[in-house]
Amino acid sequence: MARIVEIQLGEYRPVIKCEFENFDFKRDETVLVEIDRGIEFGRVVSEPHSVCKGKADVAAAKVLRAAAPEDFDHIAKNRFKAQEALVDCEKKIREQKLDMQLVKAEYIFDGTKVVFFFTAEGRVDFRNLVKELARLLKVRIELKQIGVRDKAKIVGGFGVCGRELCCSSFLKSFHALSIKMPKEQNLPLNPTRISGVCGRIKCCMAYEYQVYREYAKDLPAVGEQMDTEQGKGQVISVNILKRSAQVDLGEGKIAKIIFEAKHEL
Questions:
Q1: 240 vs 245: CA distance, rounded Å
Q2: pLDDT digits over 59-104, tens only?
């Protein structure tokens, strides 16, 4: 059985699954990871668990040890170098008149590679930019195009709820979202109400979506005709959690129907 743990690489990069041996650590602890052609630092984002080898989506990486005080000093120096590299990259982008907007830059722990994150409307031919940066910075260069949701995750901020953005605080990856989610939860389809700071549908729209779908299975839909004790009418509103519906019986008469609760909230 392999011992597996999930690690958030660096500060802005993906969560990967790594193997480890003879190592005790806690969630949110900073560790050093051997991966590809270098040493990375990362943050533990899961409890360790056992998975049969060959059946887990495990990266070709291995947790080496917990970060020591001198490692945190090294990470801080890399952050400072990344800011300088960001300025150099922005200058080269202006010189080459590339249609791209830099978001962040990050050195890997051992300083042999720097990753630049950028947004763009379409594909960008940045081959000459990579050559210029490699010649200037004397390290390996990676330019990574990201979307607006990834940008919000990297930049961070607060939602209208007053809490830190879900994507930048605890989400390990993005889940699929659609307009059906707020619609089936009877939320107003106002873009300013259902959109996050990234301009896309809020991640929290998916949290209770399955619960609402389950509770709505045996409830009538708005616009449906149904029989009541007071007569036949048309459903004009449905409260899924309260399991109630309002039925228009005509001539200004509205009937409120309560449906039997089949599940506990």
A1: 8
A2: 777 888 889 999 999 999 999 999 999 999 999 999 999 999 999 9
Q: Nearest Cα to 18, choosing from 1, 38, 33?
A: 33
In terms of domains, do 76 and 92 share one?
yes
pTM for this prediction: 0.78
Name which of 244, 253, 254, 265 is nearest 186 in CA terms.
244
In a domain, 227, yes or no: yes
Tens digits of per-residue pLDDT, 39-57? 899 998 888 775 545 555 6
CA angle 61, 1, 30 (to 5 degrees): 40
149 CB-side CA count, 13 A: 14
The reply to whether 91 falls in a domain is yes
What is the span of the domain harbouring residue 7?
Answer: 2-66
Please tell me the total count of domains within the chain.
4
In a domain, residue 35? The reply is yes
